[in-house]
Design goal:
42% helix; 7 helices; two-stranded antiparallel ribbon; five-stranded mixed sheet; alpha/beta; Glutaredoxin; single chain
Length: 185
């Protein structure tokens, strides 16, 4: 009986952990999903050898509020900048390019505007056109601001500094749901 209770507890804990994950899709899946419901695209550009990419995954991108907001607002793509698979987007096929010890994917180079830095978070509009790449590791608070800035089209009318002031005051006055507190903050 004790083993059964332990097994059930472990299964429930595993389900709870899995429920708190970003619903990553491929480029092809995002394109197909966009045909039925248009959303902005959130691209996490990473490499297997990038330490800060792993840290971003294990902290910020595992935070419950971040996960919920990304899943609700964006199609999320986890994109290895060194993948060797061809990707066709907006009528153009992008390929892997050999370059020294490590190569790169042409699509990564395009959406990163030639600045091959990892991790980089790239925001695309509903037509898969680049809005803005954001370089480097982001903590939960900053990521929350960035996601809302692009997800709600504030980038079209409000300078970043003004947006963060208003956003932070709304959180402090409980007018906006704050980032959920937890182990991943």
């Amino acid at each position: 009986m004790k083993k059964l209770l332990i097994s059930i507890t472990l299964i429930i804990m595993n389900l709870a952990v899995n429920a708190q994950q970003i619903q990553w899709v491929t480029w092809e899946e995002a394109i197909d999903l966009s045909k039925n419901e248009q959303k902005k695209i959130f691209v996490d550009v990473y490499t297997d050898w990038c330490g800060y990419c792993k840290k971003l995954d294990n902290t910020t991108l595992s935070n419950a509020s971040i996960v919920d907001y990304v899943n609700e607002t964006y199609y999320a793509i986890k994109f290895d900048a060194e993948t060797k698979e061809d990707i066709t987007l907006n009528g153009k096929t992008y390929r892997y390019t050999n370059s020294g010890k490590r190569g790169y994917h042409e699509l990564a180079k395009e959406i990163l505007k030639g600045q091959m830095s990892y991790p980089t978070l790239v925001f695309l509009d509903e037509s898969f056109l680049t809005i803005q790449p954001i370089k480097g590791f982001q903590d939960v608070k900053t990521m929350n601001q960035i996601l809302h800035y692009f997800g709600e089209d504030h980038h079209k009318s409000t300078p970043w500094m003004k947006f963060t002031q208003v956003f932070n005051s709304r959180i402090n006055n409980n007018a906006l749901i704050p980032v959920k507190q937890g182990a991943n903050n």
